[in-house]
UniProtKB/TrEMBL annotation:
The chain crosses the membrane at residues 40-58, 64-86, 98-116, 122-142, 163-187, 193-212, 251-272, 284-301, 313-332, 338-358, 378-397, 403-423. It is found in: Cell membrane. This is MFS transporter. It comes from the Bacteria. Residues 25-429 form the Major facilitator superfamily (MFS) profile domain. Keywords: Cell membrane, Membrane, Transmembrane, Transmembrane helix, Transport. InterPro entries: MFS (IPR011701), MFS_dom (IPR020846), MFS_trans_sf (IPR036259). It is a multi-pass membrane protein. It comes from Actinomycetospora aurantiaca. PROSITE patterns: MFS (PS50850).
Length: 452
């Protein structure tokens, strides 16, 4: 069994209460995550609503949808490579350079999407160019998560790491909300500009994000490792050799969340449009409401783990996901706007956010500080390969079996998560809390005697 990783020894330099910059780092990481998610998830919205006809032949809608989702999946497929590169650099040269570099790379790729020619203009080259920039997006997004979460985690108070990493994770629903607002507002611009403007607007967000991230302090735990000469020479080799079991466990934990999202949100958005159950405005509005609620929900679920532990909260989320597939399609098949909104809220604010809110703290605690970015990033991003092609699989299942196919696919992912949760150790139970309390007492500064 993998060893339990104790809190870092540098208690005086990085006290139990966290660093003075803890709130600034959490908010800065969250803002960066918001921007990257706006860019990456915006592609998913566009793929579901526009890209099947813009970049691929419009005379076969189902084939266009399959190709559009395949392009979406390619971005997810290269995320593990981005996670490996970002994790390796994060453990070797620091978390901060990775944060800045990944954001800049993502911004360039996203703006280029808004400038691409369409299939009507250049034929098959449109799809090829779309794939190229999507690959760059995937690399950048793969490098992003580990750096943002680890910066927050390692600055945060030990007793409230669930809350603080939940704040960073909340940047993702904020990004989803902004992306959907942008696409909703751009609908009146017509099919040629409705999808371009949201990507072009990313340039403004990227500029703001770069300024914020340049002001964020480096992780204190990484600085301690560097000062003590304990920086890993090959963090990828080390974590795969010593912690491969935790990589596998975290992979399946994450797969339930991200692949479940790919069906319950990404596929369902396309399903509602193709089956004429809802117009684009209603669908985008439902997604926006769910994302808005999800911002608070993610922070709430993260903070809940500080009180009850990481595993109980995650287990509840995976069980709900396993049971949600069929009821989800019962609701959306009514075509009722209220039912569709309710379906999106449960899918996102409960099923997805309950899991995402836990992952920042739990995944970070599974790995030692010297290989933490590599291990957490690798597990987190490997699951993206599955989730990236899940809308494609869900579309194929729908073509063969109707809505029950993708509904049962959600159940399969949920069951995988339940099993993985049971097999993964608790990292914030009674023993860990007692150990932190002991360190807090041992490192507490004595109160000076009052002077006369």
């Amino acid at each position: 069994m993998t060893e339990r990783h104790a809190p870092p020894s540098s208690a005086v330099r990085h006290p139990v209460e966290g660093t003075e910059a803890r709130k600034r780092v959490a908010i800065g990481s969250s803002i960066g995550a918001t921007i990257e998610t706006y860019d990456f998830i915006g592609f998913g919205v566009a793929a579901a609503l526009y890209f099947n006809t813009v970049f691929f032949p419009a005379d076969d809608p189902l084939s266009g949808t399959l190709l559009s989702f395949a392009t979406l999946g390619i971005g997810f497929a290269v995320r593990p490579l981005g996670g490996i590169i970002g994790g390796y650099l994060g453990d070797r040269i620091g978390r901060k350079p990775v944060l800045v570099g990944s954001l800049l790379l993502m911004g360039i790729a996203t703006v280029l999407i808004g400038l691409l020619p369409t299939y009507a203009q250049v034929g098959v080259w449109a799809g090829i160019l779309l794939v190229v920039v999507r690959v760059v997006q995937g690399l950048a997004f793969g490098a992003e998560w580990g750096g943002a979460i680890l910066m927050t985690f390692e600055h945060a108070p030990w007793r409230r790491r669930g809350l603080y990493t939940g704040i960073t994770q909340a940047g993702f629903p904020v990004g989803l909300l902004l992306a959907n607002i942008a696409f909703l507002v751009s609908v009146p611009l017509g099919d040629q500009w409705a999808w371009r403007v949201p990507f072009l607007l990313s340039a403004v967000l990227i500029a703001v994000g770069i300024v914020i991230r340049l002001k964020v302090e480096e992780s204190p735990e990484f600085e301690d490792l560097k000062a003590e000469g304990e920086v890993s020479k090959n963090p990828l080799l080390e974590v795969v050799r010593d912690d491969w079991r935790n990589i596998v466990r975290a992979f399946f934990l994450r797969m339930t969340e991200t692949a479940g999202y790919a069906v319950t949100i990404t596929f369902v958005v396309s399903y509602l449009t193709s089956e004429e159950l809802s117009d684009r405005t209603t669908t985008l509005t439902a997604t926006m409401i769910a994302a808005a609620i999800g911002v608070a929900a993610t922070v709430f679920w993260g903070s809940l783990t500080d009180r009850f532990g990481r595993r109980p909260v995650y287990l509840a989320g995976t069980i709900i996901t396993a049971l949600w597939g069929v009821p989800l399609f019962w609701l959306v098949n009514t075509g009722s706007a209220i039912a569709i909104v309710a379906a999106f809220v449960v899918s996102y604010a409960v099923c997805q956010n309950m899991l995402a809110g836990v992952q920042g703290a739990w995944f970070s605690e599974l790995f030692a500080a010297r290989t933490r970015t590599t291990g957490a990033s690798l597990a987190y991003q490997l699951s993206a390969v599955v989730s990236g092609f899940t809308p494609l699989v869900a579309t194929a299942l729908f073509a063969g079996f109707g809505w029950i196919g993708p509904a049962l696919l959600i159940t399969v992912y949920g069951v995988c998560g339940v099993i993985a949760t049971v097999l993964t150790r608790e990292t914030w139970g009674a023993a860990e809390k007692a150990a932190v309390d002991e360190i807090a007492r041992a490192t507490a500064r004595p109160v000076p005697a009052p002077t006369s």
